[in-house]
Write a structure and sequence with these properties.
about 450 residues, alpha/beta, FAD/NAD(P)-binding domain, Fumarate Reductase Iron-sulfur Protein, Chain B, domain 2, 3 domains, disordered N terminus
């Protein structure tokens, strides 16, 4: 067990290797063929399926479930992937409990929806295991498109453009492609290097080249991309992290939760990861839950999520909140950080006032030898000349920015919720509009 020289309470090897392996195994084990057929038989195959309306990518859910029920999971996978080329990852990380499964008629009638997410995973995993790519490229158009960002939006955009016959080059600052799918998802949700395998499978369409270690504004310039390509799509996500604006937040034991999660994802030996005995996570979204639960899985004794508003306003779904508490995480609400004092962090209670959230004079402290900030991310390095709205690149419904020839989508752009499935939709739809513009 090794100690950090800066924060003595943060150590590695808190748990035996066998326990860590179990803790970070598949959170939702895949269905086998028999289980999938049984689960599929519960579907009513609604004509006006509310689950399909609730899906941001509009997958024909009744059709793919019927295809599983009739023993053709490969056909079901193509139905899914036609709308969502990252359907395998989305089956693992989508908040289905607040999307398709919440809308399921079975949920309304019985309180137990059809397991749409697990059925989607069964279908896509079955197809991918065969190494088959169900789509082929159209005749080459001679057009080239630059995509900035190899995350869900960029990959979805690139794949759809490649299908249309365009050549695509993706630029990404990180060493590996995948964006948040590779670096920002809890390890127990994406095991066995699935994100990287999905990218490799996606690239089988052909016509896509990925250049890693290339950051916009540092290694590649937007003006140069405009000159050398027929269109540009920006899908670089949000690289910045909001500040606590509390004295002491620059202490060595205060970290960004996204960096902690990325480190977890890239470290195959979880026993080498250092974790505190008393961990505090500040925030109320999925990143906060992922950081908190994984801290517990690494062996932290006391893990607390602290959120400034009420629990009902947390961005993390009720299902994820329950998952956190069942893992032993405590959730404290109506509290905002005001200062970091060595091994403690001070909070002030909050209340909803006439002018919004108000900080009260009543404070309390929590022991914390490790603090993770999960209070939202910000756009960094937005190119000059693009209209910005609410801290994001302004786009219309088709993903067009204020500059002709440039589209954007995913977390860096205005639009829907910051979800993998939403990013896929926006990348896919922008690609369709880019194709229309290039072939007009």
């Amino acid at each position: 067990m090794s100690n950090s020289p800066l924060t003595p309470g943060v150590v590695s090897g808190r748990l035996p290797a066998a326990v860590l392996a179990e803790n970070f195994s598949d959170h939702e084990p895949p269905l086998d063929r028999h289980e999938a057929r049984v689960a599929a038989d519960r579907c009513y195959f609604c004509h006006d399926a509310p689950c399909m309306t609730a899906c941001p990518t509009s997958i024909d859910i009744p059709l793919f479930i019927r295809q599983i029920a009739t023993g053709t999971p490969e056909a079901a996978a193509k139905t899914i992937l036609n709308q969502n080329i990252l359907g395998g990852m989305c089956a693992r990380v989508c908040p289905t409990e607040t999307l398709c499964e919440e809308a399921c008629v079975r949920e309304a009638a019985e309180g137990k929806p059809v397991e749409i997410g697990r059925l989607q995973r069964f279908a896509t995993d079955t197809l991918m295991a065969k190494g088959v790519h169900p789509f082929t490229r159209a005749k080459a158009t001679g057009k080239t498109v630059a995509v900035v960002g190899a995350g869900p939006a960029g990959l979805a955009c690139a794949h759809r453009l490649a299908m249309k016959g365009h050549d695509v080059v993706i630029f990404d600052p990180r060493p590996k492609a995948g964006g948040l799918n590779e670096y920002g998802i809890a390890s127990y949700k994406s095991t066995n290097d699935f994100a990287a395998k999905e990218v490799d499978w996606l690239l089988k369409i052909g016509g896509i080249r990925i250049e890693t270690g290339k950051a916009l504004g540092r290694d590649v310039q937007l003006a140069d991309l405009q000159k050398s390509h027929d269109a540009v799509f920006l899908g670089m996500g949000l690289a910045g992290v909001n500040a606590l604006r509390a004295p002491g937040e620059d202490a060595p034991h205060v970290r960004n939760a996204v960096d902690f999660i990325a480190e977890l994802r890239q470290q195959p030996d979880k026993g080498k990861l250092a974790i505190g005995r008393d961990v505090v996570v500040i925030g109320g979204g999925m990143t906060a839950v992922d950081a908190a639960v994984q801290s517990k899985l690494l062996g932290a004794e006391n893990v607390t999520i602290v959120y400034r508003r009420g629990q009902e306003k947390m961005a993390a779904s009720g299902y994820e909140q329950e998952h956190a508490t069942s893992a032993g995480v405590r959730i404290v609400t109506h509290a905002a950080p005001v200062a970091v004092h060595g091994g403690e962090i001070e909070f002030a209670y909050t209340k909803d006032g006439a002018k919004g959230l108000e900080i009260t004079s009543e404070t309390f402290r929590l022991k914390a030898d490790q603090v993770f900030k999960a209070i939202g991310q910000t756009l960094v390095g937005a190119p000059d000349g693009l209209k910005i709205d609410g801290g994001k690149i302004a786009v219309d419904a088709a993903g067009r920015t204020s500059v002709q020839g440039i589209w954007a989508g995913g977390d860096c752009a205005t639009g829907g919720e910051d979800l993998t499935v939403t990013a896929v939709k926006e990348g896919r739809d922008a690609a369709e509009d880019i194709h229309a513009a290039l072939t007009a």
